[in-house]
Amino acid sequence: MKPNQPDLVGEYLHEIDLRLSGLPLLQRRELLADLAAHIATERTERNVQTEEQLIEILERLGSPEVVAAAAYEEAGAPRMAASVPPPGPYVPPAAYPPPFATVPPDAQQPFGAQQPFGVSSPPAPAKPARGAKTGLVLVVVLGIVGFLIFICGFLALARGGEQAPQPAEATVAPAAPAAPSPATPPSAR
Amino acid sequence: MAEGAQLASGLRRGTLEFCVLAMVEFEDRYGTEIVRRLAEEQTLAATEGTIYPLLSRLRRGGMLDSKWAESPSGPPRRYYSLTPAGRSALEHFRTEWVSFRQTVDRLVGTGEIA
């Protein structure tokens, strides 16, 4: 019993911690500290002697899945129900939502406006990932554009240098469609 | 069973937080005290561990304040108190709830038997 007891609580808290990776660090720490204090309080106030009693305390707290799901739900809800119209478009997290999807952009605002605790944390993990992605896309797009410009320049040089008759054809072609367009509108209107 | 749980969780959402606020209306209470009291209520069907995230949200939303204090016996306790914003939210809920309840009673037929 003795060697198992500390493990049991530690394992329980660890199982919850594992499921909280999408939450801001401070919120995570807060919940784990609250749960640890709860377990410690229950142990002393109920004078827990056996492992069975300890398991009972943990069972009343709820499974790690249930506790973590509640943590995500409370983190995602933007504000108090009293000060906000019914949360119609609010999508409850189905299972464990992807870490960055839990905090909608409008949810960061109210928290940020009220308290500094765990505020800057939600966007923090999202930014590097997003930044890295857009950076990669930018590099690829710029590469393609640069390559195209290079090809165009090369072709222009090649044309200008080698084919003298080409420009003549080019000037004829645009002239043909340009002629009918000024003729039709005046007659129609 | 599953349907019953779903109904309870639907009813709990949006009301449980005011039960929490009401618990600390007149005196500060520590987390375990609040959690135990609410979990005792079978109708609420609230799992103890899910109340801590709720307390966290209420604190982050400025409805509750909290401070850690030593306890005479055992580990430190985290005491929660109602902020002025929390107090007015609770008052607002009380008026809203009465008319809400009356409307539901009227529509569902759970009001006075007439």
Features:
heterodimer, A: 189 residues, mainly alpha, 2 domains, 8 helices, 70% helix, disordered C terminus, B: 114 residues, alpha+beta, Arc Repressor Mutant, subunit A, three-stranded antiparallel β-sheet
Care to describe what's here?
The complex is a heterodimer of chains A (189) and B (114). Chain A is mostly helical. Chain A has two domains: 4-80 and 90-121, no CATH class; 122-165. Helices cover 70% and strands 0% of the residues of chain A. Chain A contains eight helices and no strands. The longest helix of chain A is centred in the last third of the chain and has 40 residues, at 123-162. Chain A starts with a helix and ends with a helix. Mean pLDDT of chain A is 65; it is low at 77-129 and 161-189. Chain B is globular. A three-stranded antiparallel beta sheet of chain B has the order 1-3-2. Chain B is an alpha+beta fold. Chain B is built from five helices and three strands; from the N terminus they run ααβααββα. Helix content of chain B is 59%, strand content 12%. The model of chain B has no long low-confidence stretch (mean pLDDT 94). Chain B has one domain (2-108): Arc Repressor Mutant, subunit A (Orthogonal Bundle), CATH 1.10.10.10. Chains A and B meet through helix 2, helix 4 and helix 5 of A and helix 3, helix 4 and helix 5 of B. Chain B: InterPro entries: Metal_resp_DNA-bind_regulator, Tscrpt_reg_PadR_N, WH-like_DNA-bd_sf, WH_DNA-bd_sf. Chain B: Residues 20-91 form the Transcription regulator PadR N-terminal domain.
